[in-house]
Amino acid sequence: MKKQRSSKLAPKVKRKAGNPATKATKTRASNRSAAKVKRKTRKPNRLVAVAPYNHGDPSLQTGADGLTVWTLQKMAQGKQFNELDDLFNKGLTMDALPVGLAAGTGVPLLDFSSLIPKALNYLTINSRYFKIDSKQLVHDALEYIVGRNWRGKVFFPSNNRSVSEGRNRIKESLTLPRSPIVPMARFDTMLLDSDPLAVDTTSNVVVLNYAHPQTRPYWLELILTKIQCYDVQVAVRGKYGPIFLGKTWLGTYDEDGQFTAFDPGQLIARYFLDFNDGAIKEQREEHWDGSDEEFVDPMPYVEN
């Protein structure tokens, strides 16, 4: 598989004029998607020389007893991390980024003793009207990113099948329980042969860079400019088709959008995504709280 290199051109998004939810913006340069880590030099595993899978390949659909984002969430809640890591490290090499709406579940993995104090050094949100409990703010942010108020992600189609952008499906309000689900928390995404935060993987990986998460003046997006995260995900076989296992790290972005993890060995969350129609249907019928949802319509097309 030809290794994907960062593009020097910032992808542009075409959107219908007049719709604030899909207002045209320039995306950030895709070379901001690679993470930097402070760790001892270690060679990543080489990719196995096999043809990459297409997302529609029927062999990736395992049927009734296969994995779903909900069974994977239960594994994470049960601290079956060795089994999850084994799946992550032996993932599938895919031929393109996923596209469209994804049902998602996640589990925050908070470590207030080590990582959170480092994050608080970068958290400077001031208000004349109220005081902010910084630790509670970090906790609430992670709950909204991968917890009870998060429903998944959406990946936009692109003329480059390995470079695009997307949004998270998150409740609009941090305080109103029945507020609608809206697309927010923007990310740049790339399909790469490897990533230094995932040296044990034998497949290619999808990385999500949150150096520039803001789309509208959402409070959560402001928080994400201070509490900075980075995702790496891999595909495995699932009940409805390919399903993605993701890991999230806490760290900082530099001026060029390069990410440095506070601790490469410490995750702050695990999450799971399924872009297949069957998963979206199951989410709506069996795992929904009645909230309305706003969609990016029409779906933007990212040009690189």
Brief overview:
By secondary structure, this protein is α+β, with helices and mostly antiparallel strands. The protein has one domain.
Describe what this molecule looks like in 3D.
By secondary structure, the protein is an alpha+beta fold. The protein has one domain. Helices cover 17% and strands 26% of the residues. The chain contains 6 helices and 12 strands. The strands form 2 sheets. It has an 8-stranded antiparallel beta barrel with strand order 3-4-5-6-7-8-9-11, surrounded by 4 helices. A two-stranded antiparallel sheet has the order 1-12. Strand 9 (243-253) and strand 10 (259-261) form a beta hairpin. The protein is globular. The two termini are 20 Å apart.
Layout of SSEs?
Layout: E1 12-14, E2 35-36, H1 69-77, H2 81-89, E3 100-108, H3 115-120, H4 134-146, E4 150-155, E5 163-171, E6 181-192, E7 205-209, H5 219-224, E8 228-236, E9 243-253, E10 259-261, E11 269-274, H6 277-286, E12 301-303
Parallel strand pairs: 2-10
Antiparallel strand pairs: 1-12, 3-4, 3-11, 4-5, 5-6, 6-7, 7-8, 8-9, 9-10, 9-11
